[in-house]
TrEMBL record:
It comes from Protea cynaroides. The lineage of its organism: Eukaryota, Viridiplantae, Streptophyta, Embryophyta, Tracheophyta. This is Uncharacterized protein. InterPro entries: CAT-like_dom_sf (IPR023213), Plant_Fungal_Acyltransferase (IPR050317). It holds the Pfam family Transferase. Belongs to the plant acyltransferase family. GO terms for molecular function: acyltransferase activity, transferring groups other than amino-acyl groups.
Amino acid sequence: METTISLTSQDVSKEEPEILISPKNPIPVETLFLSNIDQAVCFPVETIFFFDVLPSGISSPLHISERVKTSVSESLLIPYYFMAGRLNFNVETNRLELVCNNAGAVFVSATSRLAMKDLGELSLPNPSFHHLIHRPGLNKSLAEKPLLTIQAIRIVTC
């Protein structure tokens, strides 16, 4: 049985300040109605994806970060432009609404001193993986919190 590593906040260091990424193309500025299910089931979904970098010339942390930012701006946020918006509580209707205002998705680049092999079995839940997740704006109002946050962490692949 493989042991699970316990991560700490010192295992991940941010390389740059967090930035906001917007869709490359112009998007409609609108407010979207949220269904009753959207109103009742409103919680953050934190997901971590691990992948190996091919041993080509693109493995520098800066280049990888730029590729991810470009992909988000040019591919992800075009059809899913609402992910660059913010939630708002409408006091007149007493409901949450999705304001597509192009406020931006948060992106931050980081590195880790750990190797992929040090993380243990990646397909198994590990409560300490929460140290790999960037949580911006814990003290911000609802209208200031981003819907999408991406943190690209470069981990050594030995």
